Structures are given as C-alpha cells and as structure tokens.
Amino acid sequence: MTASPSGVLTESVSVSEAAEMARRAREQVVGRVSGHPDRRDTDEYFRLAALNDTLLPERVRDALDRLRDGAADAVVVHGLPADGPAVPVLGWTWLGMVTRRLGHEYGYRAEKDGDLVHDVRPRPEGAATQSNASSAVDLSLHTEVAFHDIRPDFVVLYGVRSPEPRPATRLVRIADAIRECRPETVRELREQRFRIAAPESFSQARIVDDVAPIGGSYDWPTIRWHSSIVAENTHRRAAVTDFLESAESVAHQVRLGPGSLVAFSNSRCLHGRDSFAARYDARDRWLLRTYVLRDVTRLMSRYGLEPDSAGIRTLAEAVAS
Ligand SMILES: [Fe+2]
C-alpha cells in the first residue's frame, strides 16, 4: 500500500492479478446475474459482488476498510480489469464490491431520477454548468449533495472510458486545506452563516441557509461545500476565497481511466474535475458513480421503510423530500 502522509491510499492491480480477477468475476458474479445491470435495481448485482469481494486483492480490501473506519480519507485503485464499453459488467462488479464494503448505495429522486448507479457523462446542455454533466469548465471543488441534511458518507467513482489526456479529478483533504488557510478563515467558516443551493443536476431547486461549511473538531474537521455558497459580508466572502485558494493548493490529482476507481469520504474530502474536450459520442468520458451511506437504516428510521429488495429503490424515492 502506498500510504502518503496525506491519508490518500493508492493501490495498483498487477496485470497477472487482473487476468485472474476478470476470469473469476465473470464466473462468480457476472455469469450468475439475470439480465443486464439495472441502475435503479442494483441489489442482485451488488449483493453477488459483495459476496465475492475477496476477488479484490487483500491490500485493496484493507485500504477500503481503513477508509471505512476513518483511518484514511480516500482510496485510489488503478489497473482493475476493464471491459467492453456497451455494458461495463466488470466495472459494475468492482463498483458493487467497493460500494458494499463501505456501506450501501442510495439515491435521490431529484438526482438522475433516483438512479442508484449514476452514469456521469458530459452533456451539451450541461457543458458550462457546475454539475456532473459539465466538460468545458473546471468543476470547482465541492462535496456531494452539500445542501441536503442526508449526504453520502462516501462517494465511489469508477472509470469506464476517458479521453486522452485524462482530465484530473482533484481531491482535497479538508485537514490539508485548513492547514493552508488563515486562522480567521477557519473561524468564519465554522459559523452557521452561509447559504448553499442544490446543484443544477438536481431537478428540484433547493436552498439552505445557516450552514457552517466547516464542522467537526479541531483534529477531525468536516466540510460541506458547493460553488453556490453565498456569504453576506466581506469577511465571509474573503473567507470563501481564501479557503478555495488554499484548498486548490493542496489538491491531489487522480486521473480516472478505464479500470481506475476512487472512493473518498464526502465529509473529509472535497473534489473537483478539470475541464476536458467532450465529444458527445460513443467514445466520450464515462464514469459510474455511487453515493454510499455507511448505515442505510438511517433512511429506514426516517422514512419508515423496510429493507426488502424493492425497498432499495423505494429509499431512493423517499429521500428527496
Ligand atoms: Fe461531485
């Protein structure tokens, strides 16, 4: 394991490991699933993937466990066996293994119509927006679903296709960003004085007030952030500017090509993406994404749902209130 002091763990799967992983994944997971992967009914595929997650090298599972228990903030894996572009069944397998090792996938009715596996692709109408459909502009640093009171504990991104050169996904640990900030910036951002709106990919317009972007303790800070963040006075606006400049200065660059995956804590990392040239054809950039809750029973308690297989979809329906 390459453990940088930054808390971002990077692993690579060797070519010989990958060949054996692909063979066994097709036999033990892909070949036993009925039909194609279904973005809104992931349970059969992900359950089988999870039952067979020992196909992942032990060091990869160990890194994911460190992310799950808070000993690391992000895990990057390169060299996973990639497969055909039409239906990335091996990609679904790795995504399912990683997602279920960290928790449980869930969705929002207002985001991609409740899909539990998100196709992240550039779209012409979103090219210049601050959303996952963008391409022509840098996607500025943010956390997922920052405006909502139920936010993913972890986010997993798997690369199906990428243009060359591969655009960088920028990853920033909040602890690193804070170290670079002026003390008054951190003091301001700990105040519940900021407004955050839903991103343009959400079909419902939502704005929340009285958000403290930085939370948690001194040693274990957390972050909620989106480009829509609004501050009402010059001190707070200066804090927003200083924070973003500081965060960008300590960004890790992860280039997701076919067979690469990143999983990160959504409360301890910000992420963004560099601009790239979209093609809007069958060779365009394409990621699979899941939102992960470590304890999905939070949703059951809140919405009174049962954990039956159809309920997984129902949770997605219910969360967007
Ligand atoms: Fe994002």
TrEMBL record:
One of the Pfam families matching this protein, by short name: TauD
One term of GO molecular function: oxidoreductase activity
Binding locations of Fe cation: 142, 144
Residue runs in coiled coils: none
UniProt domain TauD/TfdA-like: residue ranges: 73-291
Keyword Oxidoreductase set for record: yes
Keyword DNA-binding: no
Keyword set, alphabetical order: Antibiotic biosynthesis, Iron, Metal-binding, Oxidoreductase
Cofactor(s) essential for the protein: Fe(2+)
InterPro entries linked: AlphaKG_dependent_hydroxylases, Clavaminate_syn-like, TauD-like_sf, TauD/TfdA-like
Family designation: Belongs to the clavaminate synthase family.
Protein name per its UniProtKB record: TauD/TfdA-like domain-containing protein
Classification of source organism: Bacteria, Bacillati, Actinomycetota, Actinomycetes, Micromonosporales
